[in-house]
Write a structure and sequence with these properties.
By secondary structure, the chain is an alpha+beta fold. The radius of gyration is 21 Å and the shape is globular. Helix content is about 25%, strand content about 20%.
Length: about 375
């Protein structure tokens, strides 16, 4: 029996193809019970690799069944047929994904970015509080509902974190995700703290939201790693971002895992909080002290504590050689996994980096180090 017939028997009228990989595909369908369109992820066990069937798929199914958050794609039903096909019926992102939205409309204004980023961060806090990590956060996996609210999707790389006898989270050794969004420790093959990995990816996503471009050029992983480990973040001058926004991004893209922000610190950051809208453009720490005025080019002052907002010091110029790295075009990640949104799951090889011709022209930038 084909997919359309199987879905029809379950009360779904199959629609168009939304994505396809070597062993999984995603179809749209109309639910006669729910009275609206849904997405159906169809996985063929006969074509899937053993490690996916033994490890990733059981994790995904377990986690999807337990999640219930307004900013996470809802899972309505999971069933399997006798011939080894798994059907996961999910909420449909009717407005597409965030990557396509930005490629079509350009960078978001900070107020819109703040709203969407708060929705995403709330979803990540919900997951992290359950000791669930996503490990494949990227704009393609952020779907938009009819009102353009964020819906986090694709938990193919997700897992529940284990704890040792002292209650501390154990490190992960599975290196997965998308190179352009992956933290330096993951790209280097170092056992990593999965929650801390998610935070780096959040930093990349917020940068893309407000800049309309990638923070790092992943066509040369070795060079990208060097820039990341030097804690260099370039912002397009034309975007006129507030210091608070740049401060938050800079502190999420922190190569030192012990200093990278936690999800609670992100949600309490002055830029994310509504009160930040009425404050000056100077960076503000948790004690409410202004840390300087807005400049087109600034660098954090050395020696600040990670628990307080980074103080800023005006500088006329910093690392001009880094400027070509700014404005890397927003592109579909050809070396990413899953191969399509809500579709297939494979581990990436950092050496297999490709450059998309789609995207935005490079812009002049300012450098933060």
């Amino acid at each position: 029996m084909d997919d359309a017939a199987i879905l029809k028997r379950r009360g779904y009228i199959m629609g168009i193809n939304l994505g396809e990989g070597s062993y999984a595909k995603v179809k749209s369908a109309y639910s006669e019970r729910l009275k609206f369109n849904v997405a159906v992820k169809i996985i063929d066990r006969k074509k899937a690799p053993a490690d996916f069937l033994e490890k990733f798929l059981p994790r995904e199914i377990e986690i999807l069944a337990m999640l219930n958050h307004r900013s996470i794609v809802k899972t309505y039903e999971i069933f399997e047929t006798s011939d080894g096909k798994v059907y996961i019926v999910m909420e449909l992102g009717v407005q597409g994904d965030l990557l396509e939205f930005i490629k079509t409309r350009g960078a978001l204004q900070e107020d819109d970015a703040r709203k969407k980023f708060h929705q995403l961060s709330s979803a990540i806090k919900y997951c992290h509080d359950l000791d669930v990590v996503h490990r494949d956060l990227k704009c393609e996996n952020l779907l938009l509902d009819k009102d353009f609210n964020i819906k986090l999707s694709d938990f193919g790389f997700s897992k529940r974190c284990l704890r040792d006898d002292n209650g501390r989270l154990t490190l992960s050794k599975t290196f997965c995700g998308s190179a352009a969004y992956a933290a330096p420790e993951v790209l280097q093959g170092i056992p990593y703290q999965p929650k801390v990995y998610d935070i780096w990816s959040l930093g990349v996503i917020l940068y893309i939201m407000v800049c309309g471009s990638m923070p790092y050029d992943d066509s040369n992983i070795k060079k990208m790693l060097r820039i990341q480990k030097e804690h260099r973040v370039n912002f397009p001058r034309s975007k006129h971002l507030t210091s608070e926004c740049k401060d938050l991004i800079y502190r999420m893209l922190q190569p030192d895992v012990n200093r990278r922000l936690h999800i609670d610190e992100i949600l309490s950051h002055c830029w994310v909080q509504p009160r930040s809208r009425g404050q000056s453009a100077g960076a503000i720490n948790k004690e409410g002290e202004s840390a300087g005025t807005a400049h087109s080019l600034w660098v954090p002052e050395l020696g600040t504590d990670k628990k307080s907002a980074t103080k800023m010091e005006p500088r006329e110029e910093s690392h001009p050689e880094a400027r070509p790295e700014a404005g890397s075009e927003v592109k579909s990640q050809e070396n990413t996994v899953p191969t399509s949104r809500q579709a297939e799951t494979l581990a990436f090889n950092p050496e297999l980096t490709k450059k998309s011709e789609e995207g935005f022209p490079q812009q002049s930038s300012e450098t933060h180090t």
